[in-house]
Amino acid sequence: MERTLSSDGKTTSAQIPLVRLSQICFRYPGGPLVLDHLDFELFAGDRIGLVAPNGSGKTTLFHLIMGLVKPESGRIEAFGRVLESENDFTSVRRRIGLLFQDADDQLFSPTVLEDVAFGPLNLGRSRREAIDISRRTLAFLGLEGFEDRVTIKLSGGEKRLVSLATVLAMEPEVLLLDEPTTGLDNDTRSTLITVLQQLDMTMVVISHDFDFLDQVTRRIFSLENGRLLTDEQVHFHVHRHAHKMGKTPHRHH
Amino acid sequence: MTEEVFADGDSPLHRTAPVIRAALAIIYCTVVALLNEFYAILAALAFSTLMAGAAKLGPGRVLRHLSWALGFLLFLWLVLPWSISGSPFFGIGRLTISAEGVALCGRITLKSISILLAMMSLLATMRVASLGQALGKLGLPPRLVQLLLLAYRYLFVLEQEYHRLYRAARIRNFSPRTNIHTYRTFAYLAAMLLVRAVHRAQRVHQAMVCRGFNGSFHSLQVYRPTVWNPVVAVVGGLICLTLAVLEMTI
């Protein structure tokens, strides 16, 4: 498959991080601190896997970067600018794409083509341009012929790929993927791996699927006690092994 | 439920600009709703039938969709003729049906059918997204337009959510009876559905905001200027005028 999508190279010099969170504290109303003076830097070309227990604040971290929730304290910078108002975040959302956990939250138009074109149209593209971008993106994901399919009648795997198309159609420079492999069958999962390997983008991927992360990311971070642990601190080590009964649910310690 | 059965088609009405159709539907339905004279009402029914013909809806599909409304009208026929006082029309013993009651039922039935036929021909022949845009152009506040469009999309998801909850209750041997346990369970289901709807709405809005949504919907469907725009506007206007004149001169 030919690579048709890439970041447009507007990234700043390698020294300045694309996204920088400093000393972020966050809690949901009436709850304990989810993020406790968290620091995080994302550089152009980074491909980071984020592994941490449920409820440790991974999704919250993504939502903070997109400006969907506001931190209690701390500073969020992206593309060299400090982000405070809703307007600051609006321009960031054009350059960072977030894939939600539940595809049903992301697809709301009657047909696939309309849903994929929603983002480009919001960015001020003409109808023709929006349709062109949408068709190209769908083709890139191997979804030719899906244009007129009804979104609510797609299978789970198709919904996931179409939601990825809706994000990619905005031509972002950074991708944030929130548990992209949950509920996918093996075929869709390997399609997703191929696609992500071909994308020359900065990305952060939340997942519990180590094998998947091994194939699409280069570093693995974790969240513990509201702070981020980089791979130097986490010491995940990757080894592959084969054993019987692999299809039966089991755990590795 | 969420299928737009009449939206795809190729008739003069399908090609007419949604704004013109929406405006015409509002005026026509208001005029028909206010009619009182039988001749005017029969004329309206004739006009509506002609519209359905012009929109090429197909008699079978139209009747199937009308049958939903006819069910409601049946209730009127069962109740109204007995409960309106007036000159007796037909009677068994002390039970009498009044001529006024029958006339009222007839009027309501014919007007309902006329209005429904007009709605089907003028409004159901466009996608809901186009209808939303048209209503926006006619001055409906953007918030109400959004409400219409999203309600339409998520009706389906809510229905699924309800079935999921109800299944969860059923696999634990819940079977509805006439007792407080049943009422409480249904109240919980309804409440949970509301909570889930709110959460779902928040997540959907977040996803839309992430994709650059700033309050206005853009549609991919284009309506090119067509000769049918002035034709439909003028003919529709004349029909409304004719009905008004009929009503007032008889």
Assembly form of the protein? heterodimer
Largest protein interface?
A: A-B, 31 and 26 residues
User: Quick one: overall form of chain A?
Assistant: globular
- Report the span from N to C terminus of chain A: 38 Å
Question: Could you provide a short overview of the structure?
Answer:
The complex is a heterodimer of chains A (253) and B (250). Chain A contains nine helices and ten strands. Chain A is of the alpha/beta class and 253 residues long.
Tell me what the structure shows.
The complex is a heterodimer of chains A (253) and B (250). With 253 residues, chain A is of the alpha/beta class. Chain A has helices spanning 58-66, 86-95, 103-106, 112-122, 127-140, 156-168, 186-198, 210-216, 231-234; strands spanning 19-27, 33-42, 47-51, 73-78, 81-82, 96-99, 174-178, 202-206, 219-224, 227-229. Chain A is globular. By secondary structure, chain B is mostly helical. Helices cover 72% and strands 4% of the residues of chain B. Chain B has helices at 12-15, 18-34, 38-54, 59-83, 99-122, 128-137, 142-170, 180-210, 228-249; strands at 88-92, 95-98. Chain B has a two-stranded antiparallel ribbon. In chain B, helix 6 packs antiparallel against helix 7. The longest helix of chain B is centred in the C-terminal third of the chain and has 31 residues, at 180-210.
